[in-house]
Amino acid sequence: MATALSNYWWIMLVILCVVGYKFVLRVFFGMVIVPEDRIGLVTKKFVLFGEHTSLPDGRIIATRGEAGFQAQTLAPGLYWMKWIWQYSIDMTPFTIIPEGKIGLILSKDGKEIPTGRILARKVESDNFQDAVAFLENGGQKGRQTAFITTGSYRINTYLFDVVIAEQTKVFENMVGIVTALDGEPIPIGQIAGKFAEGHNNFQDFDQFLENGGNRGLQPQVILAGSYYLNTWGVQVEQIPMTEVPIGSVGVVISYIGEEGEDMTGESFKHGNIVAKGQRGVWMEPLGPGKYAINKYTTKLEPVPTTNLVLNWANARSESHNLDKNLSTITVRSKDGFPFNLDVAQIIHVPANEAPKVIRRFGSMNNLVSQVLEPTIGNYFRNSAQDSDVISFLSTRKERQESAKNHIRAVLDEYNVNAVDTLIGDIVPPESLMKTLTDRKIAEEEQKTYQTQKMAQEQRQGVEKETAIADMQKEIVRASQSVEIAQRTADATVKKAEGDATSLKLSVNAEAEATKMRANAEAEATKARAGAQAEATKLNASAEAERISKTGLAEAEKIMAIGKSTAESYELQVSAMGGDNFTRFKITEEIAKGNIKIIPDVLIGGSGSSDGPISGLLGLKLMEMMELNKPNTNSGSETNPTL
Question: Both ends of the chain: CA-CA distance in Å?
Answer without folding.
Answer: 234
